[in-house]
């Protein structure tokens, strides 16, 4: 029970973090650099999972992606496949829960870059996108990496939304937090202990890394 | 020939670039008390043209309007045959297409790039140069650093450079983009007096060697006399005098 859950957790967390980094940075760029109506609304929607109970987020995900959900029913009718109770569901749940942390960190990091660097880049004929990748992103890299670490830790610890959307199927969708829950319920204290320690170690490392990366700010930020 | 004829209501900070962004965050109360109306008309031919005036006279806003960083309320800006801005026909060329080399007061070198990389970054991979190779860009960057006499600093990062060295790199970077005009915004105000004198001579020499017109903003009389071919004196958003530096009566700014 420990080993499959550990393996699955790592896989789910890794994939979810990759998705979050790409999506989160894109959202952060849009929110930091584009002025459009509904910008703060978009920010609020992306941030919502941070404040909602995870089960509520999970419920909304079912409403969207479940077999009879808004998007899920469409997919199910055409392919006979549903994402619920697959490990992809665990990835989606973890990604949605971790996304706000990434967007918040990356947006703050991008906005803290002195806009004069971007103006200097524009006068050198560089487009907004090229400037973002070659100037803004490198100068914001500490804050963005801190967001990556936090997202990773959040995805690893995801429980509520995962349970709602992916269920708790050992060897298939049972990640470490779910395995801990089951071990405790079944009275298998030893297993719960080991899993809890592993998760704690990872989280402490994440906090340490984040502090270290955001602590020594350079002039560029 | 640069032709500028613009009007703009100034209610925001003139000191910082990206002022629009900052005022949005609500610190424009103090600045709006310094609000004034910019209404200027001037031309700048070859050589070094100085925009002279005390802090708050609108000279930096003029420079930024030429660069495309600030947009005038109305008027017209053109350089030779190219129209940069025209409120009547609705033309407003983006910064990227204006081909202006901008030299900032505080250098604004990219801190994560070496001196050479800073200059190489500025080299335009234009239509005709069709994406210069990395080696060719490096070569060109070295040439420009050599032109400013700081080839030795090529591999150093901005934090390792002195003020004078930084400003030389910044000028080399501005030249790298093959500009039609170079705009200098109080380029010597952050360096010490000794460096200032040497840099003045070098800026002057660089202008003469490249033949690119320089538009130079300052409030320092000594700089005007030393480097200017033509001086435009601004006060409270208006041109009050212009002519050769020796003929025009200058009042020390600040």
Describe the secondary-structure layout.
The complex is a heterodimer of chains A (221) and B (254).
Chain A: H1 2-33, H2 39-51, H3 54-65, H4 72-79, H5 87-111, H6 115-123, H7 128-139, H8 141-156, H9 160-166, H10 176-185, H11 189-215
Helix pairs in contact in A: 1-5, 1-8, 2-5, 3-9, 5-8, 5-9, 6-7, 8-11, 10-11
Chain B: E1 2-10, H1 19-24, H2 29-32, E2 36-44, E3 48-52, H3 59-67, E4 74-79, E5 82-86, E6 91-92, E7 100-103, H4 115-122, H5 134-147, H6 163-176, E8 181-185, H7 193-210, E9 214-218, H8 221-227, E10 230-235, E11 238-243
Parallel strand pairs in B: 3-9, 3-10, 7-8, 8-9
Antiparallel strand pairs in B: 1-2, 1-4, 4-5, 5-6, 10-11
Helix pairs in contact in B: 4-5, 4-6, 5-6, 6-7
Structure, explained:
The complex is a heterodimer of chains A (about 220) and B (about 250). Chain A has about 220 residues and is mainly alpha-helical. Chain A has helices at about 1-35, 40-50, 55-65, 70-80, 85-110, 115-125, 130-140, 140-155, 160-165, 175-185, 190-215. Chain A is globular. Chain A starts with a helix and ends in a 6-residue tail after the last helix. In chain A, about 45% of the residues are buried. Residues about 215-220 of chain A have low confidence and may be disordered. The model of chain B is unreliable at about 15-35 (pLDDT under 50). Chain B has helices spanning about 20-25, 30, 60-65, 115-120, 135-145, 165-175, 195-210, 220-225; strands spanning about 1-10, 35-45, 50, 75-80, 80-85, 90, 100-105, 180-185, 215-220, 230-235, 240-245. In chain B, the strands form 2 sheets. A 6-stranded mixed sheet of chain B has the order 7-8-9-3-10-11, sandwiched between helices. In chain B, strands 2-1-4-5-6 form a 5-stranded antiparallel sheet, covered by helices on one side. Chain B contains 8 helices and 11 strands. By secondary structure, chain B is an alpha/beta fold.
């Amino acid at each position: 029970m420990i080993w499959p859950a550990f393996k699955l957790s790592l896989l789910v967390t890794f994939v979810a973090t990759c998705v979050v980094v790409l999506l989160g940075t894109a959202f952060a760029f849009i929110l930091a650099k584009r002025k459009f109506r509904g910008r703060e609304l978009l920010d609020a929607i992306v941030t919502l999972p941070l404040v909602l109970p995870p089960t509520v987020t999970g419920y909304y995900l079912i409403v969207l992606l479940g077999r009879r959900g808004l998007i899920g029913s469409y997919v199910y009718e055409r392919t006979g496949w549903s994402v619920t109770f697959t490990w992809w569901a665990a990835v989606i749940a973890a990604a949605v829960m971790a996304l706000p942390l990434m967007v918040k960190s990356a947006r703050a990091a991008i906005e803290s870059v002195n806009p004069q660097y971007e103006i200097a880049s524009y006068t050198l004929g560089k487009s907004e996108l090229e400037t973002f990748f070659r100037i803004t992103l490198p100068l914001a890299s500490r804050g963005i990496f801190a967001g990556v670490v936090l997202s990773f830790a959040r995805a690893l610890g995801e429980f509520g939304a995962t349970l709602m959307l992916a269920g708790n199927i050992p060897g298939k969708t049972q990640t470490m937090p779910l395995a801990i829950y089951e071990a405790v319920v079944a009275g298998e204290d030893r297993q719960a202990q080991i899993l809890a320690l592993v998760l704690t170690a990872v989280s402490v490392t994440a906090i340490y890394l984040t502090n270290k990366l955001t602590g020594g700010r350079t002039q560029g930020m | 020939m640069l032709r500028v004829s613009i009007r703009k209501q100034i209610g925001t900070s003139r000191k910082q670039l990206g002022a629009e962004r900052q005022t949005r965050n609500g610190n424009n109360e103090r600045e709006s008390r310094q609000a004034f109306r910019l209404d200027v008309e001037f031309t700048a031919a070859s050589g070094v043209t100085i925009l002279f005036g005390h802090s708050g006279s609108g000279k930096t806003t003029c420079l930024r309007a030429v660069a495309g960083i600030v947009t005038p309320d109305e008027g017209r800006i053109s350089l030779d045959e190219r129209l940069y801005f025209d409120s009547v026909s609705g033309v407003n060329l983006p910064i990227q297409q204006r081909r202006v080399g901008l030299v900032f007061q505080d250098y604004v070198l990219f801190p994560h790039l070496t001196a050479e990389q800073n200059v190489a970054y500025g080299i335009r991979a234009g239509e005709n140069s069709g994406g210069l190779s990395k080696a060719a860009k490096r070569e060109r960057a070295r040439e420009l650093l050599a032109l400013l006499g700081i080839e030795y600093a090529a591999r150093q990062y901005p934090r390792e450079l002195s003020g004078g060295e930084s400003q030389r790199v910044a000028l080399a970077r501005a030249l790298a983009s093959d500009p039609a005009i170079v705009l200098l915004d109080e380029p010597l105000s952050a360096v010490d007096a000794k460096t200032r004198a040497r840099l003045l001579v070098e800026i002057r020499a660089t202008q003469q060697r490249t033949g690119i017109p320089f538009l130079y903003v300052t409030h320092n009389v000594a700089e005007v006399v030393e480097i200017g071919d033509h001086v435009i004196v601004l006060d409270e958003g208006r041109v009050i005098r212009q002519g050769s530096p020796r003929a025009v009566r200058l009042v020390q700014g600040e």
